[in-house]
Specification:
ATP-binding; 5-stranded mixed beta sheet; 2 domains; single chain; 11 strands; 6-stranded mixed beta sheet; Nucleotidyltransferase, domain 5; cytoplasm; alpha/beta
Length: about 260
């Protein structure tokens, strides 16, 4: 079995694959800088509580955008699973041609998303919108070229910016509003966050499609914690919550002889 870990600025999103089947997903905050022992106990407990024997894990794949956690995560894999993890970083075989001016600048999460998207939709042009701490929108061509994209403050980050930098605006629950006009402070913040993201993402998808994929409409995939919030807006052809885990599973296949 393969343990896949997406380590973001807010959460660790994990999953366990048995061959191609995703048997389990789980989340844990990444904002607590935990020791390797704390992480090891957590991972093994989650596996046992979901009827998966920790000893059945024979591969671990990690993509991480929090460098401070990498040392602890690697030590966790070595101590609690007796495994040297596959860590997605420059030099890892991805099957992608990265067209950034400096390919080393591309976040591991964006690469894993792209690999997962091409696994699901080979030989198609693809746009991936990932709603995490930051919202990223990335374009991938049918030639397996990572063309680039956009990085935008995510919904929670935008909300916290309002809360922390204003005297009277509160934190709110992020939910789809019924109307574009809020009739209270909370409703106004909710409507502003929601509809500004709908308009922003729709416009960026439109512009990327026109600039890069004018001859064929790309497959548009929504993923990340907030993607399903926008289901009713028809922004995506498909919402794939586990896209990054699928990408990590595919990276194991590309890099380790099984």
């Amino acid at each position: 079995m393969i343990l896949c870990l997406d380590v973001g600025n807010s959460q660790i999103f994990g999953g366990v694959f048995d061959s191609e089947n995703l048997e389990l997903t789980f989340r844990r905050t990444s904002q607590l800088r935990s020791s390797s022992d704390e992480l090891g106990v957590f991972f093994r407990t989650v596996l046992r509580e979901n009827d998966i024997d920790p000893e059945s894990i024979n591969r671990v794949a990690i993509c991480c955008v929090v460098p401070d956690l990498l040392y602890s995560l690697r030590a966790t894999c070595q101590k609690y699973f007796s495994i040297e993890p596959l860590i997605l970083r420059p030099g890892t075989k991805t099957g992608l041609k990265i067209l950034y001016r400096d390919p080393r600048e591309v976040g591991a999460d964006r690469i894993a998303d792209a690999v997962g998207a091409l696994k699901l939709y080979p030989e198609r042009n693809i746009i991936v919108a990932d709603f995490g701490t930051a919202t990223t929108i990335c374009a991938i061509s049918y030639k397996k070229e990572f063309l680039g994209g956009n990085i935008i403050p995510g919904l929670n980050l935008s909300m916290r910016a309002l809360e922390e930098n204003t005297a009277q605006l509160p934190s709110v629950e992020i939910t789809p509003p019924e109307t574009a006009i809020g009739r209270s402070t909370i409703e106004s913040i909710q409507a502003g966050l929601y509809w500004s993201n709908v308009g922003m993402v729709r416009e960026l998808i439109k512009r990327i499609s026109e600039e890069e994929f004018s001859t064929e409409h790309p497959v548009v995939i929504g993923t990340g914690g907030f993607a399903q919030l926008f289901n009713r807006e028809n922004l995506f052809d498909k919402v794939v919550p586990d896209l990054i885990l699928i990408g990590l599973r595919e990276l194991v296949r590309l890099n380790i002889q099984e």
